[in-house]
Write a structure and sequence with these properties.
The chain is mainly alpha-helical. Helices cover 77% and strands 0% of the residues. It is built from 9 helices and no strands. The two termini are 44 Å apart. The N terminus is likely disordered.
Length: 178
């Protein structure tokens, strides 16, 4: 019996993709929630992220998912969890920065939501850069450090730093174009 057939349970192989998806959900939802529950402090968060995982699976090539369903679900769930953790960190950091503002200057809840969404988009774009390039780019753009100062701090050549900054700018430019 193939791994995809065994993961679908004792029922006969379904005739439609919606039946495949239904069986995948039925056979793996409880397992996936338990997997996420071990990494999250709240059972409702695990339920929400399991739901998000299956939403992503619905947009995936189901034939690929069914070849190794639990491996595929684990990978997708890990990515969903990482996005969730990134979101939580961004929101927490933003809320901490807002606490230092006087009440009249604090943005409205709507403005806060827009700001968090923009920060998440920026983080997602920057995550597309190699770690060292991202670090150099952020040192240059956020901290205002010069290429020689970055090179000295990171023990790199100025040329390597300049190339990394250029790569970061190029990456962000193309991300803005879509």
């Amino acid at each position: 019996m193939s791994s995809s057939a065994s993961s679908l349970g004792p029922a006969a192989t379904p005739a439609t993709p919606s039946a495949d998806l239904h069986n995948l959900y039925r056979d793996n939802h409880v397992w996936l929630v338990a997997l996420l529950r071990r990494r999250l402090p709240d059972a409702s968060q695990a339920q929400d992220l399991a739901h998000d995982t299956f939403e992503r699976i619905m947009r995936a090539d189901l034939a690929q998912v069914l070849k190794a369903p639990r491996a595929y679900l684990t990978t997708v769930a890990r990515n969903v969890l990482l996005n969730h953790v990134r979101h939580e960190r961004i929101v927490h950091a933003y809320q901490e920065s807002l606490q230092s503002l006087p009440e009249p200057l604090a943005p409205s809840p709507e403005e806060q939501l827009v700001a968090v969404q923009a920060l998440e988009q920026a983080c997602a774009v920057l995550d597309g850069l190699p770690a060292r390039t991202r670090l150099i780019f952020l040192m240059s753009q956020l901290e205002g450090m010069t290429s020689p100062a970055i090179a000295e701090e990171l023990k790199l050549s100025v040329n390597v730093v300049k190339k990394a900054v250029a790569q970061g700018i190029k990456h962000c430019y193309f991300a803005m174009l879509g």
